[in-house]
Specification:
- It contains 9 helices and 5 strands.
- The chain has about 240 residues and is of the alpha/beta class.
- The chain folds into 2 domains: about 35 residues, no CATH class; about 160 residues, Ribonuclease H-like superfamily/Ribonuclease H (Nucleotidyltransferase, domain 5, 2-Layer Sandwich).
- A 5-stranded mixed β-sheet has the order 3-2-1-4-5, with helices on both faces.
- It is globular.
- The C terminus is likely disordered.
Length: about 240
């Protein structure tokens, strides 16, 4: 257990319990909690920001995702290398499955770079019905607007100054910051790119997600039909999801 705690310092006892079971240890949550307390282990609590609800029709709590590939959410996150060079991450998440479907880092990411990433995603996963974002210049660029219209993807722009309306993206970004950017140091863009790939794999394939009954996003997504498949007659699958 302590080895897993050292490997995942931001995981609480519930996620550690899930990882132990995955490695075929016969444990229950109460026993892991007792051991956790005995060792004096703690995870520093994040300070929660006050959230508004807003009234935008495009907010995630109003226009909810109905299934896999229904709504993707995208955003940008910034950090620095050890020598002070600014880095920019493009994050794209599937709101229903919580998968991080794209995580790209570069010194600069422009509209054409965003389009290239979306083309790669669509080639691998199919076309989403909607994509949610704020009103940042990259997202409202004419080139992206034309591309979205051409591919039949509806853009859901949230209200300015209302990040909670893009809550699934904000939730992922907070985990990216807390469990990756605040933990790792990047000596170069190449170093950051490799470590980013490793984090994305761990997030999708290893990290148990509390909103998915402690399944990983990949485990949950594997049994979910695409929402477009439902529109052609596939039986719907229901699952209660939250925004954390």
């Amino acid at each position: 257990m302590l080895e897993l705690v050292r490997e995942h310092p931001r995981f609480g006892y519930r996620r550690i319990c899930r990882l132990l079971r995955r490695e075929e240890f016969v444990v229950n949550r109460k026993r892991v909690y007792r051991l956790w307390r005995r060792e004096g282990l703690k995870v520093r609590r994040r300070t929660k920001k006050r959230r508004g609800t807003g009234g935008s029709k495009n907010a995630c709590h109003v226009h909810r995702s109905r299934g896999k590939n229904d709504v993707w959410a995208w955003d940008f996150v910034f950090d620095y290398t050890t020598n002070g060079t600014q880095l920019k991450w493009l994050t794209v998440v599937d709101e229903f499955t919580r998968e991080c479907v794209a995580l790209k880092v570069s010194r600069s990411i422009k509209a054409d770079d965003v389009i290239d990433t979306l083309c790669e995603l669509i080639a691998a996963r199919g076309v989403p019905n909607h994509i949610r974002s704020d009103n940042g210049p990259e997202f409202i660029a004419k080139a992206i607007g034309k591309w979205l219209n051409k591919t039949g993807v509806s853009a859901l722009y949230v209200e300015p100054g209302s990040p909670w309306q893009n809550g699934y993206s904000e939730s992922f970004n907070s985990k990216l910051r807390d469990e990756f950017l605040n933990v790792e140091e990047f000596d170069s863009i190449r170093d950051a790119a490799q470590m980013t790939k490793n984090f994305q794999r761990q997030y999708n394939e290893v990290r148990p997600h509390s909103a998915l009954a402690y399944q990983t996003p990949n485990e949950f997504a594997a049994v979910q039909p695409s929402v477009r498949a439902r529109q052609t007659g596939a039986a719907p699958t229901t699952f209660a999801i939250t925004s954390t």
